[in-house]
Amino acid sequence: MYETLEEINEEVKKCTKCKLCKNRTQTVFGTGNPSARVMLIGEGPGLDEDIQGEPFVGKSGKLMNEAFRGLGINREDLYIANIVKCRPPNNRNPEKEEAIACMDYLRNQVILVKPEIIVLLGSVALKSILGDEYGITKSRGKWIIKKDIKYLPTFHPAALLRDEHKKIDFWNDLKLVVDELNK
Ligand code: URA
Ligand code: SF4
Questions:
Q1: Measured from the CA of 28, which atom of ligand 1 is nearest?
Q2: Which of 107, 127, 94 is nearest to 19 (CA)?
Q3: Which of 45, 96, 101, 152 is 20 to 30 Å from the Cα of 17, by its Cα?
């Protein structure tokens, strides 16, 4: 068992449990408030994240930050992490076995942060955490409660960059989170 997030990060930094270790510039562990009420889980680092070592610092991250800011929530209030901590080549989806290899770190991040709410950003996060029987189109915007944690699946912010129409659903989903926090 880990006592602190920093302890997990030290393991992650030297991790070679899957082949994604080969091409990384650096690992991308997670960032934000270590006792956040809301945790966001994405897929894995992209180019910008691999260079900077922080999740969601590229284009899709900026879009997500703006949406939260519009709802009165700062990025620093949240805890942000990914399914895999090393960048998949050419931004491909993480493979099942890579997600499984990396899951113990995320599980321990959740145990230490103890969020009330986990926002699952996109299909990879949804299926890796809640199971392959879930699909993002059907599940987005609906609360799923498991072991005292409220999960809210929504679109990955990169999907909004490809399809503007998804922005309104994304906004409404984030609004559900804010309303839940203010309950
Ligand atoms: N996309 C993700 O899923 N995670 C990041 O950290 C950046 C982009
Ligand atoms: Fe280890 Fe996760 Fe990186 Fe794979 S993606 S090498 S399991 S830290």
A1: 6
A2: 94
A3: 152
- CA separation for the pair 65, 76 (Å, rounded): 10
pLDDT digits (tens, 9 = 90+) for 133-167: 999 999 999 999 999 999 999 999 999 999 999 99
| pTM given for the model | 0.97
Give tens-digit pLDDT for 34-89: 999 999 999 999 999 999 999 999 999 999 999 999 999 999 999 999 999 999 99
**CA distance linking residue 149 with residue 153, whole number of Å:** 13
- Cα–Cα distance list, 22 to 8, 25, 47, 88, 103 (Å): 20, 9, 15, 10, 18
Q: Which ligand is nearest to the CA of 9?
A: 2
C-beta separation of 102 from 83 below 8 A: yes
Q: Would you state the structure tokens that stand for residue 161, as one six-digit string? A: 């960059």
DSSP string, 140-171: TT--EEETTEEEEEE--HHHHHH-TTHHHHHH
